[in-house]
Amino acid sequence: AQKITQTQPGMFVQEKEAVTLDCTYDTSDPSYGLFWYKQPSSGEMIFLIYQGSYDQQNATEGRYSLNFQKARKSANLVISASQLGDSAMYFCAMREPFNSGGYQKVTFGTGTKLQVIP
Amino acid sequence: EAQVTQNPRYLITVTGKKLTVTCSQNMNHEYMSWYRQDPGLGLRQIYYSMNVEVTDKGDVPEGYKVSRKEKRNFPLILESPSPNQTSLYFCASSLDLGQGSPLHFGNGTRLTVT
After folding, report:
1. Which member of B31, B88, B102 has the closest CB to residue A50?
2. What per-residue confidence (pLDDT) applies to A45?
3. Which of B19-23, B53-57, B76-80, B91-95 has the lowest mean pLDDT?
4. Neighbouring residues of B62: CB distance < 8 A, sequence distance ≥ 6
5. How far apart are the C-alpha atoms of A108 and B41, rounded to whole Å?
6. A30 and chain B: CB distance < 8 Å anywhere?
7. CA of A108: which chain B residue's CA is closest?
């Protein structure tokens, strides 16, 4: 089974509209971290937002928020007021314990390509 | 400037010719990792290191070697590259092994093996 599933290979959104990028995950461990990264066409990977499995509130960072539904094992990224510069690939990732000694295992989804239309 | 530096950015080589991709971080990070990115497959972990002299396999370690002799450096070695190792490679580091410790990425190395 996939650890991280991103079911939307590509999405379009109108500039200034909000968009939700889906991410579901699979783990039996109660303690884990969820991350979203952005990869513009230039190729670099940029950390956007983090949510811990025990966090009671959804994480927010500026125009980014993470809609965390623990029982459904989903961690969707919401981008409000989309801008042309938001056009990029977006990856969901999970950090979980492996063997002993910390959260060594970091697994990524296959990504969603977002295109913002003027 | 705090960063992860990978070299080279682009590399074209032939099957069987040993190569090394270097990775260095100046943030005193404990954890370092290598990923390969392929279309439709996302990023897959090759190897990771929790500290000096401590390395372990990720999900796709076959055909790769790593070493962590110093905290700042984590080179990726392809002893006998094959065309199926043509990919975009990323080195990443994090401050520690914490649940909430984000990865910091290098700019990537695009490798072509002919």
Report:
1. B102
2. 96
3. B53-57
4. none
5. 9
6. no
7. B43
Q: How does pLDDT run across A42-77, given as a tens digit for each residue?
A: 999 999 999 999 999 999 999 999 999 999 999 999
| 3-class state of residue A50 by DSSP | strand
Pairing status of strand A88-96 against strand A60-61: unpaired
Query: How many CB atoms are located within 10 Å of the residue B24 CB?
Result: 18
Cβ of B3 under 8 Å from any chain A Cβ? no
Structure token digits, residue A60: 């927010």
Query: Would you call A113 an interface residue with chain B, using a CB distance cutoff of 8 Å?
Result: no
> Scanning every residue of chain B, which has its alpha carbon at the shortest distance from the alpha carbon of A93?
B43
- Nearest chain B residue to A53 by CA distance is B99
Residue B17: partners with Cβ closer than 8 Å, 6 or more residues away: B81
